[in-house]
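Chapter review: from sequence to fold.
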Amino acid sequence: MFGWQDIAHRYRRSRVGAFWVTLNMSVTIGALGLIFGTLFRVPIVEFLPYICISLIFWTFIASCINEGCTSFVDSEGIILQVRIPLFVHVLRTIYRNGIVLGHNVLILPLVLLAVGRPPTWHMLLAIPGVLLMALNVLWMMLILSVVCVRYRDLTHIVQNFLQVIFYLTPLMWMPQTLPDGPYRLILEFNPFYHLMMLVRAPLFGELPASANWMVCIGLAIAGWTVALHVYGRYRHRIPYWL
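The token string follows.
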């Protein structure tokens, strides 16, 4: 209910509503696809769906993490007046961004249809990939929401960090353009690359590598272990920090 009210309030009195986000994303995908496809000399039939999938799901990841930093701060009024589980406010944030993701995903079948890519059964593997992606993003949000209540400057550090990760992760460029050697470590040790591959590979009709699954599952287990410890230890101090 909280998440839906946030979307309704954000686009109140707008005739198009949340589809303004979809329109903006469509224009961005089209412009960047043409520009960077030409610069990298990659056929538009291959590069347009690539950048479409990358931008849609990176926007979801980055928005969840950025807004997750202020989940408790933005809900200060409710936390100090109504006694409900604090984790609800983190779920509210990811649910709100999940609604926006649902609007943006509508662009993908249109792009695939435009470039003549037929659907395959491999695309169904993107569903567990998205769920595992959301599970990993959620523990990051939980840790950051607790820490950022105490240290407010960390929110700006996270924003700058995500901007750097955006360029280090193959979103605007393709992994095969990276030369062999130590540069490949940029991919192997980048968890966001593995998260993106769980979704991007199936939508391209390919199977994600076993390493992608192993890294993301291991990351989820380790991340939730830390997140539950941090949340369990400091959740009673959050109202005082607010």
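Two observations follow directly from the output. The chain has a mean pLDDT of 88. The CA atoms of residues 91 and 138 lie 8 Å apart.
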